[in-house]
Write a structure and sequence with these properties.
It is built from 11 helices and 2 strands, in the order H-H-H-H-E-E-H-H-H-H-H-H-H. The protein is mostly helical.
Length: 294
């Protein structure tokens, strides 16, 4: 029983950290109705910048956080203005293909600019595990989970209660109608990508401290994709629930099935769950059900 609780506790923390990355997918989808397939590369770029600032430039951690946030906001605004704004009004598949191309470019430019060596960054939270009864929590995971909860709550309030959040939802529903109602579609399009850049910056620092900083951090984006499918592409609560489910399933699979089959079950278990979810509820647990009559 203690082993099961240990797996559950670690799964919850990892799941909340997945939810933070999934939030980037949700923010872009809610505002643009398109999926950003480069979100993992955004996280990788953030981690590479953080590693360069902390390890190479030897700047303090909190200064590095500000630099990474500023860099990702500027990068996201520039990306939206140069690449994505010309695609306004075009079919959604055009934006999707643009993000796929961007992901390939970032995977190539990352090692070219920052080098191929793996750097390590440390969060200022200590390294001694925290014992809470049957739960043994790693400080970096606990810090990442708390950051995830904070920003998930903040963005939930933003979309439900603020005028800007409601306007972004209107833009996602129909760009032409929103523009006719006086909403500056281009401004909210840019804001959505900037918010995704903020989430990627935080996720890159947290996951970079856990995994090490190199180009492979981008794989977190693929690991998170089952989270957004399971929870619903347009739901922030769904990102939380989906992240918790995937985190717990991963840890339980690794704890109980890996010793039997020789390992690797945590790498494919989320995708099995995603396929089953698509068969039963393709729009996700909290996703908006769309019915088109032809």
């Amino acid at each position: 029983m203690e082993f099961f609780l240990l797996l559950m506790g670690n799964g919850i923390l990892i799941g909340l950290m997945y939810s933070l990355i999934a939030l980037g997918f949700v923010l872009v989808y809610k505002a643009t109705d398109a999926i950003n397939f480069a979100q993992g590369e955004f996280v990788m770029l953030s981690a590479l910048i953080a590693g360069a600032v902390i390890v190479v430039a030897a700047l303090p951690f909190w200064v590095a956080v500000l630099i990474v946030l500023t860099a990702m906001i500027g990068f996201s605004f520039g990306l939206e203005r140069v690449v994505l704004r010309p695609l306004l009004g075009r079919p959604i598949v055009a934006v999707i293909m643009a993000t796929i191309g961007l992901a390939a470019i970032l995977r190539g430019l990352g090692p070219f600019i920052f080098g191929v060596e793996t750097r390590s960054i440390s969060l200022p939270v200590g390294e001694e595990p925290i014992n809470l009864g049957p739960f043994i929590l790693q400080p970096v995971q606990l810090a990442g989970a708390l950051v995830s909860l904070l920003f998930l709550g903040a963005f939930t309030w933003f979309f439900l209660k603020s005028r800007m959040g409601v306007a972004m939802r209107a833009v996602a529903d129909n760009q032409q109608v929103a523009s006719a109602m006086g909403i500056n579609v281009e401004r909210y399009f840019a804001l959505a990508w900037a918010m995704a850049g903020i989430v990627a910056a935080l996720g890159g620092i947290v996951w970079g401290s856990m995994l090490g900083v190199d180009v492979h951090v981008a794989l977190v984006g693929l690991k998170v994709f089952p989270v957004v499918i399971l929870g619903g592409l347009d739901s922030i609560p769904g990102a939380v629930v989906g992240g918790l489910i995937i985190g717990i399933v991963e840890n339980i699979a690794a704890g109980y099935l890996d010793p039997v089959v020789g390992g690797g079950t945590k790498d494919f278990a989320p995708y099995v769950l995603m396929i089953l979810a698509l068969m039963v509820r393709p729009y996700g647990i909290f996703g908006k059900r769309k019915i088109e009559r032809v």
